[in-house]
Specification:
The protein has 680 residues and is mainly β.
Length: 680
């Protein structure tokens, strides 16, 4: 028998409604007569799987003029950052971008800002898809048995297998070396445990799966300083990775421009329990000069101990697309890191770093660190960063933190650098996640003098704000900041905290004050128009948005209380809960003698018009209870009630539903006399 269990959940169909969004981040400062106001804005228009976005950086500064009269010298500067149109194809896991973007890269290459076109694989469009290799755990069961899978002691799967050989394809769910146990329990209650070694790594792709990207455009220059500065020569760039099998993933990267050609390839190889070995090489030709680059690396961990080794070296003639706008070229780099985590003694790490660019001296560092949690309420850490070439640039730091109740934390640190010591202490009150106030205070002292800062933060449902005052060696500065979002969608304007991913507009058919939940957590209530903005939804992921029916007034009915919502990339979608006002009532039915109708009688109500004619609207049936009490869920303004008694006789009655009934009450109507009628 073969058992396949990947635990991959399919996402629902993603949707998006047309809308506009503006994210803003404002920050103003005043220091020694100089005032600045900075604004970072993102304007985003979206529809279906398409998004058009534009980001801008604006700055207004003024400085008081010493002219004997009031005045200031002001300057205004605005820079366009990125403008890009993107559209996604979830079924193919492909995204097309037109505008400002970054070229793709591999571990040995560098990304380049361009203005142009990019088409690329996007695994984020299917977030529940498993992209890393899934190990096949094989065994044999002598009898039909229950099976349980444990990975690093955590149960991942439970099911049954038939007698004979079986294969369990299970997601690793870990990074690095780990263990898996399969526990078989047969019909006699006998248990057998099978042990397996696993190694999971995001550096590997599932067998047959590819990841790729292709770009064409011109190099962006002066990013952050110039709005429209581009090169004149076209650049072609592309990357491709392929899962050859569960142990080997092949990689490649190519770049081509005027007077530049660059081609490289590499591989990541899972060597049993020894971890991931990577190797890559690249060659370039530029203006008659050729060059090459070589990179080697190794990564391994077993949840307690980890190592990371990597070295890169390039020849003097090596060029890539990034060098077209950046003169800094790396000649060689290397790192060697090792770390160990112990439940009792804490975490240890040490390593060496080496970096050298062409035309600059080499930089070599030795690092070491230790950290430990204290009783779940505090932590202490010690770090050393030693420059082997310039000891004045070395530093050592001891840091202590303690967490108190109510989101209050305190801490202190001592830092030694360049022959002097710096002492600091802080206290911080975090803002409640549902909104409210927070604050922080920091003080520092050194041989050069002292400094301090105090800050207050406010987190609201529609924006975030902060204010701070600082003093550095006698110079005082102040600052104010605010951030948030404005959204226009479905004919409504909303204000919110800054939105980074997906969101939704919930409509309750015009019903106000309806509580809305996201993943069973209350996030707010609908406004007077019966709408509400729900944020923090994952794009292309299942998000549960619901209404608690127990919180609705008695005279409201809703067909469905929850919906699974999947917004598209950085866009909003509509959620409609068809809440309707109903006219329900307990009607006391009696006969012509004033006695309640017989228990168990069947009654049928139907709305009628003012002239007594029955309307073509379906009514509802009910069973007569004790004392003639009969509950009707939906009534009209005027109603005809036709009752059939247990003995087969029938009677008819009319009643008006009281229009003044509050929505949170079910009225009691009657006694209502049911007049006898002849059988048809």
């Amino acid at each position: 028998a073969e058992l396949i269990e990947t635990q991959a959940t399919s996402g629902h169909q993603a949707s998006s409604a047309p809308g506009l969004l503006v994210n803003y981040d404002l920050f103003g400062t005043q220091n020694s007569g100089v005032r600045t106001l900075n604004a970072m804005t993102e304007m985003r228009a979206f529809k279906s799987n398409m998004v058009l976005s534009n980001t801008m950086l604006s700055q207004l500064s003024s400085q008081s003029m010493d002219t004997g009269r009031n005045g200031s010298d002001g300057q205004y500067r605005q820079v366009r950052m990125d403008t890009v149109f993107s559209t996604s194809f979830p079924q193919s896991m492909v995204t097309l971008r037109v505008g400002d973007t970054l070229t793709s890269m591999q571990p040995w290459s560098r990304a380049t800002r361009i203005g142009g076109i990019q088409i690329a694989r996007n695994f984020g469009l299917q977030p529940y898809r498993v992209t890393t290799p899934i190990p096949a755990l094989m065994g044999t069961s002598s009898l039909p048995s229950d099976i349980e899978l444990f990975i690093n002691g955590v149960r991942q799967y439970q099911g049954t297998v038939n007698a004979g050989p079986f294969t369990l394809n299970a997601p690793v769910g870990i990074t690095g070396n780990g263990t898996a146990q399969i526990v078989l329990t047969d019909a006699f209650g006998r248990s057998t445990t099978l042990q397996y070694n696993l190694f999971g790594s995001p550096q590997l792709l599932t067998e047959g799966l590819s990841d790729w990207s292709a770009e064409i455009g011109v190099v962006r220059k002066g990013y952050g300083y110039r709005s429209f500065q581009y090169g004149s020569d076209p650049l072609f760039s592309g990357s491709y990775s392929y899962g050859l099998n569960s142990q080997v993933t092949l990689q490649s990267h190519a770049e081509a421009a005027s007077h530049l050609a660059n081609l490289g390839g590499g591989a990541n190889w899972l060597v049993g329990k020894l971890g991931i070995v990577s190797a890559a090489t690249a060659f370039s030709q530029s203006q008659g000069r050729t060059g090459n680059l070589v990179q080697l690396g190794h990564n391994w961990n077993n949840q307690s101990l980890y190592t990371s080794l990597q070295a890169t070296r390039a020849s003097d003639g090596y060029r890539d697309a990034s060098s077209l706008d950046n003169n800094a070229r790396q000649k060689a780099s290397a790192r060697a890191l090792i770390g160990y985590n112990d439940a009792q003694w804490g975490s240890f790490n040490t390593g060496m770093l080496y970096l050298r660019n062409f035309d600059t001296a080499a930089e070599r560092y030795v690092t070491a660190g230790w950290s430990k949690n204290i009783g779940g309420r505090g932590s202490v850490s010690f770090n050393i960063n030693h420059n082997l070439d310039d000891s004045k640039r070395s530093s050592a730091q001891l840091l202590f933190s303690w967490f108190l109740d109510g989101g209050l934390s305190t801490g202190a640190s001592v830092t030694h650098q360049n022959g002097s010591a710096n002492y600091s202490a802080y206290a911080n009150q975090s803002r409640p996640t549902e909104g409210g106030w927070g604050w922080s205070a920091t003080g520092q002292g050194s041989d050069a003098g002292g400094s301090g800062m105090a800050r207050v933060d406010y987190l609201g449902s529609k924006f975030e704000a902060n204010a701070a005052i600082a003093n550095n060696q006698g110079t005082t500065s102040t600052s104010l900041g605010a951030s948030g979002s404005l959204i226009v969608m479905d004919g409504h304007l909303f204000a919110s905290r800054r939105i980074y991913d997906g969101f939704a507009v919930v409509s309750t058919n015009g019903i106000a004050d309806v509580p809305i939940k996201r993943e069973n957590n209350l996030v707010g209530t609908t406004d007077k128009d019966g709408v509400m903005l729900v944020t923090q939804l994952g794009s292309y992921r299942n998000n549960k948005v619901s209404i608690d029916p127990l919180s609705l007034p008695a005279q409201y009915r809703i067909p469905s209380t929850d919906q699974n919502v999947v917004p598209t990339d950085r866009a909003g979608t509509l959620i409609k809960f068809d809440i309707k006002r109903i006219r329900s009532a307990n009607v006391l039915l009696v006969d012509t003698t004033g006695q309640p109708l017989a228990l168990g009688s069947r009654a049928f109500s139907k709305p009628i018009s003012d002239n007594g004619e029955a309307q073509s609207v379906s009514g509802n049936s009910a069973v007569v209870g004790y004392d003639g009490a009969t509950y009707f869920e939906t009534l009209g303004v005027r109603n005809q009630i036709d009752a059939t008694l247990p003995n087969g006789s029938r009677c008819i009655a009319t009643l008006d539903w009281p229009q003044s009934t509050p929505v949170n009450e079910i009225p009691v109507i009657g006694p209502v006399t049911c007049q006898p009628r002849s059988a048809p």
